[in-house]
Every structure is written in C-alpha cells, then in structure tokens.
Write a structure and sequence with these properties.
A hairpin with a 4-residue loop joins strand 18 and strand 19. This protein folds into 4 domains: 297 residues, Methylamine Dehydrogenase, Chain H; 314 residues, Methylamine Dehydrogenase, Chain H (7 Propeller); 162 residues, Jelly Rolls; 72 residues, no CATH class. The relative contact order is 0.07. The longest helix is centred in the C-terminal third of the chain and has 20 residues. With 1063 residues, it is mostly beta strands. Strands 62, 65, 66, 68, 69, 70 and 72 form a 7-stranded antiparallel β-sheet that branches. Strands 61, 63, 64, 67, 71 and 73 form a 6-stranded antiparallel β-sheet that branches.
Length: 1063
C-alpha cells in the first residue's frame, strides 16, 4: 500500500493502537471503511514472533518435541568365540555394534559404526575378524570390521553407493563376499583382504533380472547365492567366477513355480547340506553338497491345516550343529533336524520367531548346562534348555536403546497422535498433544492409519497388508484380516474412515502390479475387495461423497517390477453398484508424466482437492472439471512412488499440505490460492497431522527426514514477522572520480596529485585513449623496475569503524599495476597497516580488458580521511595501465527515515470527519507497506477541538489542533510531522451540537429551544445581508446560555464555538 489513507484502521483508546489491514479504499473523504477485527488472542499474541502469516494466522518456528520411541532393535547376530569366551556379535538399529559375553551376559565392547543405520548381516572370518555389512547414509552398503585383538572397528568403505548390503560370507582365506540389492542388478562384491580393496564380481542372475542376493554362504571353493524376488539359487566358483544355476527341480519339490517360491531368503550349511528357506512358501529345502542335488523327500514347511500355527518355516542367519543335530523354527515351534539323516523331531517348545544367530553354549559351572542360544529382536539373549523344554530369557545387556525411525503419523479418536516405527516396528507410540506424555507399545510398521468410531483406530501393517484395529483406551490390538492372501497386497498406504466404513487403498507385493480398494464395515464385519480398478496401478488417494468413492493412483506396483502405465489416474467408484463409473487422467498443462496423484480430500463445500507433483488442484466432483489449481512448487516434476500427499483442512478454514515433501498452508478461498511455505528445504516432510494442544490451539505436527523426531509448528492468531535487515550501498562523493574534469597547468588533475616525481621512464596523465565510461581515464606508464609512479586522491572524509569498499575499473595493457586504499588521521598520519590482498591489490593478469578491482577495509580507530592510490610499484612495469570510475562506498542498514502525515485540507467543519494520509519512508526512499508496521498511536494536541481515531479526524469544537502519528516499526518509535487542523463552526453545525446535548440530557428542552431559535434568526438575517442584526441574535444566544443552568463546561464550550461564527 502506497500512501495509504488511514481513516479507520484500529481503535483509539488514548494510547497505542495496532494498525489493521485496510479492507477497502476510500471513495470520498468522509467514507468510513471496514477493517479486519482480530480476536482477543490475536491481541495477546501481537508480540509473538512468527515465521509466516496467512489470513491473520501466524506460524511459529518448528519445535522438536523429542524422540517418541526408543529401543534396542536387532536384525541380525552371529555367535563365535573370543579369547575362549562364547560371545555374540550384533548391531542395534542405529549402528551401535556390541560384543556380548553370552554366559555372563555382559557387554565386552561397543562402538558406533559411523552413519550405519541398520545391519542385515554379520560374518566371522577364519582369523576371528568380524565383518559387519550394513546400510549407511541413503541406504548405501558399507562394510566394517571388528578386530578381537585390537578391540577396534574399522570402516572398510562403500564399493557402490547404489547397492545395499543384504548378505555376506567369507572364504577359507578370510576374503569377504557381500550380496547386494539394486533393482534388476543384484550382485556380489568381494573384499580382498590382501589388497584391502573391493572387487566387483558382477551381477549374479545372468539369465534374469533379480534385484536381491538375499542369502549367501561359502563351501569348499564355491559361493552359494540365494536370489529374490524369484528364488533361484546359484553356485559360483570363487576362482573362475563361473556361475551355475542350481535351482533345478526345487520348484517341483515345493509344488510351485520358481516365482512362487519367493526369495531364497536364508541359507546356511549344516553337515553336508545347504539348508535354504524359501519365503513365499515358508519352506526349507536341503541341497546335498556332495551329489549337488536337492533332496526331494524332505520338506520342512506348513502343516496345511489353516490353524494359527500353520505358518511354516521361520528365518535364520546361523545354524548351530551339536551331536549332528541342528534346530529351526517351524510352525511356531522348535524343530530338531538330524543333519546326517534329515530326520526331524518336534521338541514341543513353542517359539514364534526366527533365529538371529544360533549357537550351543554350556552355562554350567560344575555340570553341563548346554543350551541353544539366539538373540531376540529386542536385543535380549534367549536360551533354550532342550532337555527341560523351556526357554530362559536373559536380561537385556546390549547397549542399543537408540531412537527408532518413525514411519507413520495419524490422529486418533482421542485427539492423541499415533506413530509406528521402521523397519517392521517393533514399537508404536502415542503422543498426548495436551500433556506431552508419550506411551509406547508393541506394534508393527504401519503404512497408513485412520481413526474410526468410538475408541477405534485402524492400522494398515506392512508386510502382507495386515489390517489391525486398536482400542485406544486399552491399546489392545486385534488383527481383522490381511489383503495378501487372495489379493497379493503388501502395503496399505491410504486409509480413510467415511460413512461408517473403512476404506483402504493398497500397493501389491514384490513383482506384482495392481492395487486394491477394500471397503470394510466394522459393524457387520463384511468387506469387499476390488483389484485393478485402474489396470496395473495402485491406489494412494481416497475420498467419499454421496455414495461414490473418488480414488487416485500411483503407476507403481510392488518392488522389483516396472510399471506398465506412464500416467497416474483418477477414478470414481459406485459403492452401491460395486462398479467403476469412470477413470481419467488430469488435464493440467504443467504435467509431464505424473506417476502419482494423491491427497484426495473434500472441503466443507463439497469440492474435491488433490495433489500431483507440486500442483494443488480443486475439482468439481460432478463434472470432474478442475476449477482451481496452482503449481506451488514448479521445480517438482514426475514425483511420487507410494506415500501419498496429505491434505488437511484446519478449523481456521486454511488448507494444510505436505505436497512435494514440503509444508505449505493455503487459503483455499483465494482466487490465486495464496499460500505460504513453512518448510521448503531441508529434510522432506513425510507425514503430517493437525491436533489441539492444551490451550485449544490447532497446531501442525509432522515427521520429516530426521526420522527419529516428532516435530510441531505452533499456529496462533496474529503474531509478528521477523524483519531481516536490508542494506543499501551508499557512495562517498569526492572530486573527479572519472577524470572528466579539466586538467590544469603542469598536468595537474583536479582532486588528484602525484606521490612521486616523474621521469622519462614513468609517467601519468589523463587520456582519451581508453575509457570505461565517459571520455577520459587515468593512464599510468612505468618502463623501469627500479622506479615508481603513483597518483593519489585528495583526502576523502570517512568515519572510523565503518567498513568501506574502494573500487576502480582497470585496463591493463601488459605487465602489472596496483590499486590501494589507505586511512589517515586528522593530522594526515596513516592509521592502520598495509596488507597485501586486503588494502593493497596488485593486478598481474587480465590483460587487454576492463576489470573491476576492489578492496574492502574497515576504517580503523582515529581514521578521519581515506585516500585512493593508483600506480606501479617497484619491480612492476607496464606500458599502460588505465584507471577509471574510482568509487568509495559503504553499506548502511535501511531503516525508517520519516513519517509523513497529510490531509486534503487544513480545515474541517464541526461535527464532520476528515481522513489523513500516512506515509512511512525508509532511508533508501522506499515506502513501507503499512501492514508491516507494528503499531500506530494517534495524538491530538487539543482533543477538545478534534480527536483522531485510526487516522480519521473527528471535529468537535472551534479551534486549532496539531495531529501527529507515532509509528512503531521494528521495535522503534518514529513521530510524524505535525498536521495543523482548524475546526470551523457554523450556525448549522452548532445547532446539531446543541441538539446532541439535549438528546444526551446535558441541557434542558427550554434552553435548547432558546439557543436554536437564536441561531436560526442569526442565520436568517445573515443571509439577508444584515450582519449587525445577525450578530445581535448571537449575542442574545450568549445571554440565554450564560443565564441558564447548564454546566460551566458546556457554557465555555458553546461560548467558544458561537464566538467564532462569522469572524
């Protein structure tokens, strides 16, 4: 707003008042406009600093609410011997490596492995060295080693940051082999211990495109590699690197296809057998390493009766053999296997989890107490007494109570926030936004969640798309169903509860395309699931209205499969008719090939909102016409895989979204979708929610790339934006900086003088040979290394403590020349030292072109003057150095310079209003937007004459008053000029005043009649030209007034006013 007329902004209360946003311009001088009324809370929050504002709402700085979930989470472990002790080596998620004495259950050593966040595999080399293959920053595979001798860890490096480490083994010489994941390029890296270097052994699946080398072991000169997602097994000669696929008849033994076997997930050697577990069928096969054939009459797997225990084989990372017996977990019980005969025996010991490392350890002191030991996911060592058929857990010893990665965030029916952790859980967390209390509990990894009726909270759990319901009062969890069985679904990323139904959109399993829409009725337990509503696409957006579900998709399926479609789509589903009404692509000119559309949400007016790339759009749900859109982040193109964008509407009517991994707030009612970005750089925002705090404020809560923390942005009414200092470059004037002035006698240059004498070898002078600007420049010539020529400016006044920048345009023909600045005190003595590269600049290059040379130096204490110098020093020569456009400048903060108050007139009629114009100027001449002003106090020197409210002058009584505005800007007060205003009184205005006094019971009816009659008569005679008679009636007015019982204040006021008429 430039020169904004402030007739009616704020409120006048004889003190400082806040400037409010003017809602309309003034059409005429007496027009009073409306203005935005802030709530009481806005007044309370007026001094609160906010980072952004929109529609009167202020958004404060991000607050870190801390770490909601911690714990020791173990993915893998390996048992071994160290100095004669039974030990286990394991790494907690977060990268804390532990060496634990098993029998004593004490930590012998621990160390943080750099930026490692998870370790899927440990292996012990023949010399006892432990190798840890982990996932580091951005999941890059990184190898570490631990030396039992030196008790130290070492980072061996990352061979290829695009590959993740998933499996490992060592050969007889101690070389390490690591199996990796990269889409369609799963390979093996060798770490050659003699060379201490990685060797790329290449892609394993030479016949296909397997992404995972999920299991790996070594036996007798060969590597055995189990792949995924398709469960082929390869045998690789470590010398020749010849590869042989040995899957052979394994699918036939399992009664499925090689694709149906799933991953060759776990692989260990026990006796003469390679023991391989295939994930999809949850079965173990045995490969005879002597005959190089699969054993076709022994399969360990599911019971087949559909019972709770009919799970099949669990995983293992190490198999221990004692007395020719090893043990696996099958159908939730420990199963004994004779590694000679492959006969099995049920131990009767129930344990529904896999082995994280496995060994036999004798816990006895005087007698044998041999137990089977492993590590639980929560880090405790678990021991199994096979004879007694009991499990004995040891207390948690390992160091690893580390922050867990947060993976999802949802608002519960109780107003609390719920989160789950990654990978695979194992904990959920509840955050009470009113008290800050955190409660943790056991839970898997939820991809999506939503509140239902009553105390119900629904979670979509990975893997297997398991749908769970929690009672938020008791935190008890019930598994309702899964969408893997029969539908091949894996990740329920979008969940909505609409019309008393749970709506679920899913992503399919590995190497599968085609997500599902599931509608579940929690009252009846009925559900329906529809796959491939949009062929080969997955569902990541859902919204319900009037019997229709509006959906949106991602072209992505499960991992390890390429999409068949290029563009994501919208669809509409008829709930009652159980059929698709339509599907369509978005028609937005900014789109290229958007892989995902998500965020579908209806506003209170029934408009459907959604997000694609960096674009927010609003759609008519009946015509599918996009009625409004804005590309909030144009640089975001073709973004999205599985995780949907979140769009939420606040109680304030604003739209909140994490579109593009940013955090934006939008005014959905504005024509151009006015918005502010609260987070547009740094870690990506992954999940967001709105929830109320103890004061009833609805704030923003979110999770971002700093995955350990829950964060919050407080949202308030009002607030004050911080003001970043603005600086302007101020030139210091001095004589003849461009040498355009006339040259005087004896080659004297105005404003400049020579520092040394001249000779035939050195010279200076003004020339028109070259000029950067204008017609002339200074030319220096020095043809002798032992002579010097310099020209200096006359003294230029400066201020000590100010940092000045001296610049000059230089054209150097050849050789070298110099430019420098020096400071001097009032007596002409130099202050401050000369420093090459600081105040003295030597130029040795950039020949035959104009170049800008500068030196920035603070004027030291006692500095009163500066001088600029140009020339060639000793040992410098040049046939021509041209100098032009010398400058000396400094930076000055731009602050408020003056406040100007003006009006259209210096007079105003009694009883009327007159607007003023308030203009606020900065020192750089620019005007301040009055929205940015902190406060305005309006002052009248004579309130009896006129008052002023929000810039509007209200004339009361005859006389003169000075009006001023006191502006507060960036915490400082500035007073405007005085605006002198005279209030004039007429018989008509005085009559109105008297009538007002009567109506307010300040004078009686008789006096009112007398006074108004005298005024009428006076005006009548004045209009006839009889001024004397008119004044007589005014004198009668005064007599009636003074003889009345009116108060002295009213008498004085009316006497003052009547005496000014016709003066």
């Amino acid at each position: 707003m430039n020169a904004l007329s402030l007739f009616c902004e704020g409120r006048f209360n004889m003190g400082k008042k806040r400037v409010r946003k003017l809602l309309s311009s003034f059409l005429i001088v007496v027009l009073i406009t409306s203005f935005f009324q802030f709530s009481a809370s806005a007044e309370t929050n007026k001094d609160e600093t906010v980072v952004a504002k929109l529609n009167g709402r202020g958004f404060k700085e991000v607050q870190n609410l801390g770490i909601p979930a911690t714990g020791a989470v173990v993915t893998d472990a390996v048992f071994g011997k160290e100095n004669g002790k039974d030990v286990v080596y394991t790494t907690a998620n977060g990268g804390l490596f532990n060496v634990i004495d098993v029998k004593n259950n004490t930590v012998l050593f621990n160390a943080q492995l750099g930026k490692i966040n998870q370790v899927w595999t440990h292996i012990i080399a023949p010399d006892g060295t432990v190798y840890i293959a982990g996932l580091a920053d951005k999941n890059a595979g990184e190898l570490w080693s631990y030396s039992p001798e030196t008790k130290s860890v070492k980072n061996l490096g990352i061979p290829d940051a695009s590959h993740q480490f998933w499996s490992s083994t060592t050969d007889d010489d101690g070389n390490v082999y690591i199996g990796t994941y990269k889409e369609k390029e799963g390979k093996i890296f060798k770490f050659d211990i003699s060379k201490q270097a990685f060797v790329d052994l290449g892609k394993v699946d030479v016949e296909g495109d397997a992404s995972y080398v999920r299991s790996l072991t070594y036996h007798n000169g060969y590597l055995y590699a189990g792949l995924g997602v398709t469960g082929n097994v390869y045998r690789i000669n470590t010398e020749t690197l010849e590869k042989e696929k040995i899957t052979k008849n394994a699918p036939d033994i399992l009664g499925t296809t090689v694709e149906g076997m799933g991953f060759a997930y776990d692989m260990e050697v026990a006796g003469k057998y390679l023991v391989v577990r295939f994930s999809e069928v949850s079965a173990i096969l045995f490969y005879d390493l002597e005959s190089q054939e699969w054993v076709d009459d022994t399969v360990i797997g599911k019971i087949g009766d559909g019972s709770e225990d009919d799970y099949g084989a669990f995983g293992y990372s190490q198999l221990a053999v004692n007395d020719n017996k090893t043990y696996v977990i099958n159908n939730r019980h420990i199963l004994e296997i004779d590694v000679d005969t492959l006969e099995t025996r049920e131990t009767g010991i129930r344990y529904p989890a896999g082995w994280r490392g496995l060994a036999f350890v004798d816990f006895g002191e005087d007698s044998s107490d041999l137990r089977l030991v492993t590590v639980k996911r929560s880090g405790e060592i678990m021991t199994v007494d096979l004879d007694a058929q009991k499990i004995i857990d040891l207390p948690l010893a390992m160091n690893g109570n580390l922050p867990l990665d947060l993976h999802s965030l949802g608002l519960g029916p109780d107003g609390n926030l719920y989160m789950t952790t990654y990978p695979g859980g194992p904990k959920g967390a509840r955050y009470n936004t009113k008290t800050g209390e955190i409660t943790t509990y056991s839970q898997g990894q939820a991809e999506g969640m939503v509140a239902g009726n009553g105390s119900d909270m629904y979670f979509g759990i990975y893997s297997g798309a398991s749908i769970q319901k929690m009672n938020t009062d008791t935190l008890e969890v019930q598994t309702l169903f899964n969408l893997y069985d029969g539908y091949e679904q894996d990740r329920p990323y979008i969940m909505k509860f609409e019309n008393d139904k749970l709506l679920i959109g899913t992503i399919p399993y590995y190497q599968k395309l085609g997500g599902t829409l599931t509608i579940y009725d929690p009252t009846t337990g009925e559900r329906e699931t529809h796959r491939n509503i949009v062929q080969d696409q997955s569902i990541v957006g859902l919204a319900y209205k009037d019997g229709k579900i509006y959906g949106s998709t991602t072209v992505r399926g499960g991992l390890d499969i390429e999409p068949t479609a290029k563009n994501a789509k919208m669809f509409v589903w008829d709930v009652k008719g159980k059929k698709k009404i339509t599907e369509f692509e978005l028609d937005l000119p900014e789109l290229d090939s958007p892989p995902m559309i998500s965020g579908l949400t209806f506003d209170e007016d029934g408009v459907l909102w959604g997000a694609v790339d960096g674009i927010l759009f609003a759609m008519n749900p009946d015509t599918y016409e996009i009625v409004k859109s804005k590309n909030l982040y144009p640089n975001i193109k073709n973004r999205g895989m599985w995780r949907p964008v979140h769009i939420l509407f606040g109680e304030d009517g604003l739209l909140y979204t994490d579109i593009g991994g940013k955090l934006a707030v939008v005014d959905p009612n504005s024509e151009d979708l006015k918005h502010v970005s609260l987070i547009d750089n740094g870690p990506e925002v992954t999940f967001m929610e709105l929830a109320y705090d103890a004061e009833g404020n609805q704030n923003i809560y979110f999770i971002d790339g700093d995955k350990h923390y829950l964060k919050m942005i407080p949202v308030i009414d009002g607030g004050k934006l911080p003001v970043d200092p603005v600086y302007e470059t101020v030139p210091v004037s001095f004589e003849n900086p461009g040498f355009e002035g006339p040259v005087g006698e004896d080659n004297r240059i105005p404003g400049w003088s020579s520092l040394f004498g001249l000779s035939g070898n050195v010279s200076y002078g003004v020339t028109n040979e070259k000029a950067k600007t204008g017609n002339y420049s200074l030319k220096i010539k020095d043809m002798a290394q032992n002579e010097t020529v310099f020209v200096q400016s006359d003294p230029i006044p400066v201020t000590a403590g100010v940092k000045y920048t001296a610049t000059v345009e230089m054209y150097l023909e050849d050789g070298s020349a110099s430019f420098f600045v020096r400071y001097f005190d009032k007596a002409g003595k130099q202050v401050g030292n000369d420093v090459d590269g600081v105040n003295i600049i030597h130029v040795r290059g950039g020949h035959k072109q104009w170049q800008t040379v500068s030196a920035t130096v603070e004027a030291p204490e006692n500095a009163a003057y500066a001088k600029l110098f140009a020339g060639a020093s000793n040992f410098f020569t040049t046939s021509g150095a041209y100098y032009d456009d010398f400058k000396l400048t400094y930076e000055r903060e731009v602050v408020l310079d003056k406040v100007v108050l003006s009006a259209d007139s210096a007079e105003v009629l009694q009883g009327e209003a007159m607007g003023t114009e308030l203009s606020v100027f900065l020192t750089n001449g620019e005007q301040v937007d009055l929205d940015e002003i902190d406060a305005v106090e309006w002052v009248s020197s004579s309130p009896m004459v006129a008052t002023v409210e929000d810039g509007k002058i209200m004339a009361s009584n005859a006389g003169t008053t000075d009006i001023q505005a006191i502006v507060t800007y960036q915490g400082e007060e500035f007073t405007s000029n005085k605006l002198t205003v005279t209030v004039t009184v007429t018989t008509a205005t005085l009559t109105k005043q008297i009538s007002g006094l009567f109506e307010s019971d300040q004078i009686d009816h008789s006096l009112t009649k007398q006074l108004t009659n005298r005024l009428d008569q006076a005006q009548h005679h004045y209009d006839k030209g009889d001024v004397q008679q008119a004044k007589k009636h005014l004198q009668d007015f005064i007599k009636h007034l003074n003889n009345s019982n009116a108060s002295n204040e009213i008498k004085a006021m009316l006497n003052n006013n009547v005496n000014t008429i016709w003066e």
